[in-house]
């Protein structure tokens, strides 16, 4: 077998060599007959009868060369190889023709689409660079504006502190020696008061002048810096990124079309060129994947910078909001609103019968119709419910419901003649009934003068009713086991309470009857003086009744306020209000049962007037001992703090209420 296989291999290799030499020795006829046809049907050829049989392997090479049957099978591989080559050439020609046809029919459309996409990408990059430049400039302007605003606020704060100190020092007398010392006597003389009034007026004029200069100076700075910034923006060179895109890299449609046409002769059409042209929502444009590599790298490099800028912007927003919030609070506090006596939509005048007695009171709710708590405002002597006219709008705005009654004996409320009807215990029961009718189980009491003293008494008589207390001017004194008469108090403890002896004596009712006399009575109590500078009221003696008719309007009570008060007091005269000074023994009898429970356990805010001659600050020193949860604040005013300095009183009350009550209206305690 090995020998036969070798012979067969020799025969296969020798056959092509013989076919190459055959045309030189054979006749043309013989050569023509033996040439294999490239197009002859393979089925017409006679097949070999044997493949590698032993008989075939024993044939000599000469027999293979001369036998026609032995040559035919050897030529078959050459015929098949030529057929495959021809088919490949033919396929290439057909495919090339197809590509040429496709290229000729779509090259112009594809070029235009690619050019359009590239142009849009370039425009997008330019727009991004412009936005980035604008954002940087805006950030710079915002930082400058913020710093200017901070500087302005610092300057304003320094000026305000200076003005506040100027006003405070204007209320003191000054020594003529150097260094100058500020001092006040226990009792001011008329000439001393004139000096202080003059100092206050001069201080106010100085403050007004400096504030006007401050606003004018900063207004000029604002205009100048705005003008300089506009000039800088106009003269500023273009940003580098803008120059890059607006310069040599700008797209040229004609150049792009020519380049794309040349590329199409060498490359097959790209599938993206056959896609429809997007109208602006192309995915390639959305994610920016078609942006140049340099721009992508630049955007990545700027990522951290953008994050830092975002952090700075957030901090700037917080600082700006904080500044705006403080400015808003300052603006709200500086513009002190007051209720209108006759027609104010925020409050309404109501009447109610409480334990057989008619009470007139002001009622108001927040604009939202929801309130955090209800506050009873209790006025003193010689005042009315509208004595809280500056505080009521502020408290309504804070979200509290208000009830401000004319106290018994005042205004539209009944004015019994018998002093026993004014006992604190009875009035406490009246207000308990009013709170129940209004649907409140807990109320906040806010009192001034006799209203403050009544507030302390109501707490003892109706402990479950009171949640918080606010008092102005009058400090708290615990119930005493031993009764001390008013005469002994004036003689031994507080000589400056001598005026109370006059008020309870009945002398005032004998002199004050008409509206004009009532007006003079009120002016004397609210700081009025005669044309000669004589005071109408002395804490040690009372009202200068012999000078009724000579008192001039004061800064505290004048104009429409004086007119309204005088009209209200003509309803019942002055007997009812003066009866409150005839209750010393009656109230002691009712309150001595609370001697073993002297403390006030609810949160209490006490606003002390530093210039109150009848109730000097020294009287409140022991108050903290009996009120463990007390907040003390002070105002630099006389006894009439509610109208002399409503801005600070409102600020103190609002700040304290904000700490006591959460935003959802529930007490924090």
From TrEMBL:
Belongs to the AB hydrolase superfamily. Epoxide hydrolase family. Keywords: Hydrolase. Residues 94-107 have a biased composition (Low complexity). The keyword Phosphoprotein does not apply. GO terms for molecular function: hydrolase activity. Residues 1-144, 197-311 are annotated as: Disordered. Residues 86-201 form the Pinin/SDK/MemA protein domain. This is AB hydrolase-1 domain-containing protein. SUPFAM superfamilies: alpha/beta-Hydrolases (SSF53474).
């Amino acid at each position: 077998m090995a020998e036969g296989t070798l012979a067969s291999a020799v025969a296969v290799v020798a056959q092509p060599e013989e076919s190459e030499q055959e045309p030189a020795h054979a006749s043309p006829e013989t050569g023509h007959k033996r040439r294999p046809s490239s197009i002859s049907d393979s089925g017409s050829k006679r097949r070999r009868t044997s493949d590698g049989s032993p008989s075939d392997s024993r044939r000599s090479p000469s027999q293979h060369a001369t036998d026609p049957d032995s040559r035919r099978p050897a030529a078959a591989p050459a015929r098949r190889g030529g057929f495959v080559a021809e088919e490949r050439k033919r396929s290439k020609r057909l495919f090339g023709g197809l590509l040429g046809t496709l290229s000729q029919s779509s090259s112009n459309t594809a070029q235009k689409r690619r050019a359009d996409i590239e142009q849009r990408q370039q425009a997008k990059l330019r727009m991004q660079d412009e936005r980035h430049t604008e954002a940087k400039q805006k950030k710079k302007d915002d930082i400058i504006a913020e710093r200017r605003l901070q500087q302005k606020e610092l300057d304003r704060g320094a000026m305000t502190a200076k003005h506040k100190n100027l006003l405070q020092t204007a209320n003191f007398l000054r020594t003529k020696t150097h260094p100058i010392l500020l001092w006040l006597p226990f009792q001011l003389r008329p000439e001393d008061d004139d000096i202080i009034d003059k100092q206050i007026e001069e201080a106010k004029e100085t403050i007004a002048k400096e504030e006007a200069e401050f606003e004018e100076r900063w207004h000029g700075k604002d205009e100048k810096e705005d003008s300089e910034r506009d000039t800088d923006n106009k003269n500023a060179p273009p940003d580098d990124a803008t120059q890059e895109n607006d310069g040599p890299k700008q797209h040229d449609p004609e150049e792009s079309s020519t380049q794309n046409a040349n590329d199409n002769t060498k490359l097959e059409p790209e599938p993206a060129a056959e896609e429809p042209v997007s109208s602006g929502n192309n995915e390639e444009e959305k994610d920016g994947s078609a942006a140049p590599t340099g721009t992508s790298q630049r955007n990545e490099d700027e990522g951290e910078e953008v994050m830092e800028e975002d952090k700075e912007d957030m901090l700037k927003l917080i600082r700006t909001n904080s500044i705006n919030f403080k400015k808003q609070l300052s603006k709200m506090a500086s513009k002190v609103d007051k209720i209108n006596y006759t027609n104010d939509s925020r409050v309404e005048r109501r009447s109610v019968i409480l334990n057989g007695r008619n009470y007139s009171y002001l009622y108001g709710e927040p604009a939202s119709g929801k309130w955090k708590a209800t506050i009873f405002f209790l006025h003193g002597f010689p005042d009315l419910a509208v004595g809280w006219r500056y505080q009521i709008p502020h408290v309504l705005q804070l979200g509290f419901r208000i009830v401000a009654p004319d106290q018994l004996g005042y205004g539209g409320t009944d004015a019994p003649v018998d002093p026993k009807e004014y006992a604190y215990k009875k009035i406490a029961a009246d207000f308990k009934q009013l709170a129940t009718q209004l649907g409140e189980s807990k109320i906040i009491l806010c009192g001034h003068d006799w209203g403050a003293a009544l507030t302390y008494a109501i707490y003892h008589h109706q402990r479950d009713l009171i949640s918080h207390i606010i008092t102005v001017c009058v400090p708290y004194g615990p119930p005493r086991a031993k009764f001390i008469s008013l005469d002994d108090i004036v003689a031994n403890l507080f000589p400056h309470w001598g005026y109370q002896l006059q008020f309870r004596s009945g002398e005032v009712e004998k002199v004050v009857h008409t509206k004009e006399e009532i007006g003079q009575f009120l002016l004397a109590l609210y700081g009025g003086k005669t044309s000669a500078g004589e005071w109408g009221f002395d804490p040690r003696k009372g009202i200068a009744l012999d000078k009724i008719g000579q008192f001039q309007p004061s800064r505290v009570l004048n104009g429409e306020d004086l007119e309204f008060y005088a009209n209200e007091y003509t309803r019942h005269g002055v007997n009812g209000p003066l009866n409150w000074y005839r209750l010393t023994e009656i109230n002691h009898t009712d309150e001595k049962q609370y001697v073993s429970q002297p403390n006030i356990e609810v949160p209490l805010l006490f606003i002390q007037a530093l210039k109150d001659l009848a109730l000097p600050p020294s009287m409140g020193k022991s108050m903290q001992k009996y009120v463990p949860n007390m907040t003390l604040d002070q105002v630099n005013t006389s006894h009439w703090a509610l109208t002399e300095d409503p801005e600070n009183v409102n600020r103190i009350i609002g700040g304290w209420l904000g700490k006591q009550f959460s935003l959802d209206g529930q007490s924090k305690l």
